[in-house]
Each structure stands twice: as structure tokens, then as C-alpha cells.
Amino acid sequence: MGSVEPLSPLSRWYLYAIHGYFCEVMFTATWEFVVNFNWKFPGVTSVWALFIYGTSIMVVEQMYLLLRNRYGTAVRCLLYTLWTYAWEFSTGYILRQFNACPWDYSQFDYDFMGLVTLEYAVPWFLASLIVEKLVIRNTLRLRFEEGGDPNAPTAAIRAVCKCLHSKKN
Fold it and tell me: Which GO cellular component does the record give, naming just one (predicted)?
């Protein structure tokens, strides 16, 4: 059996990017339903969301690793939310220079340049809580088995089979 190693940064970035992309589509679909009562649930995003979410959650991961023993969850999530606003503003500002920014919050009451809005503070805070507690913590626990046979059953499946077999006898 080969050695077991944590996921590479690129693998974690990919998982974070896909997670963010999926959540963006689900959020916009839900928003469309709540605001316009659209039963088609059309969720939309931009290909830029892969880079934006993947990179942002990698930064949040590093913040989590540095802050987890120093501050409570609420303080960490507040810091993640502040990071999210800074990242959303900067990436939006850069993308706007190329007419490629996929969001515009100018219709909100508390927006800044249409790139960020205070109305999303609570959703971003809750999203950061979910990202820390579910996404980052579980992603950091994932492992690759070097030289492992992709067709061989995993240790968990072998353990269940062994348990079932012993109960039969």
C-alpha cells in the first residue's frame, strides 16, 4: 500500500472553485425564485467565478489555519467577511476595466461603486461559517493514496465488508 498524502494546493483550489461556482449558481437561482417567483430556477454565474472563489477560499483556508487557535469562530468569520468584501471589490474593479464584471449591485441601497453591497454582509458571514466548518475543514482531511489502485476498494469499504462478514458468521 502506498503512502497517504494530503491534497495538493491545486487540488484544494479546484475543490474550492467548484464549491463556489456551485453555490453561486444555487444562490442566483434561489434569488430569482424569491424575487420573481420564477419556478425555472435559472442559476447563473461567470467563468470568472472559478478563479474568484477558488483563490478566495484558499486565502480563507490560510486565515483559518493561522487564526483557529487565537480567535473564536465569530471573530474569524467577521475577518473572512471583510476579506470577502475586499476580494469582491478588487476582482470586480479589475474585471470592470475589461467590461467583464459579472455582477452589479448599483440597484442596492448600500452599494459601493456597484461592486459590493452591505446588504450581503449577513449572507457572506453565513457563507464564511459554512466554508470554514464544512468545506475547508473537510477538504483538509482528504488524502491521496500514492500508488493506490483506483479500482481497489477503499479502507472504509473494506471495513464495512469485514464488519458485515463477521456478523454473518
Answer: membrane
Q: Which helix (H) or strand (E) holds 167?
A: helix 155-168
Taking each helix axis from N to C terminus, what angle separates 48-67 and 73-97, rounded to the nearest 10 degrees? 150
CA 27 to chain centre: 13
Q: Give the integer Cα–Cα distance in Å for 128 and 136.
A: 10
d(CA 49, CA 22): 10
Q: Please tell me the total count of domains within the chain.
A: 1
In b/e form, how buried is each residue of 145-168, taking b as 16+ CB within 10 angstroms? eeeeeeeeeeeeeeeeeeeeeeee
User: 109 is written with which cell numbers?
Assistant: 441601497
pLDDT value of residue 145: 77
Residue 112: beta bridge partners?
116
**Comparing 155 with 37, which gets the higher pLDDT?**
37
148 has a pLDDT exceeding 70:
no
Domain containing residue 49: 4-168
Chain centroid to Cα 164, Å, comes to 36
Residue 159 pLDDT > 80: no
Q: How far is residue 78's CA from residue 124's CA, in Å, rounded to a whole number?
A: 9
For residue range 48-66, list pLDDT tens digits in order: 999 999 999 999 999 999 9
**Percent of residues, the chain, with pLDDT higher than 70:** 88
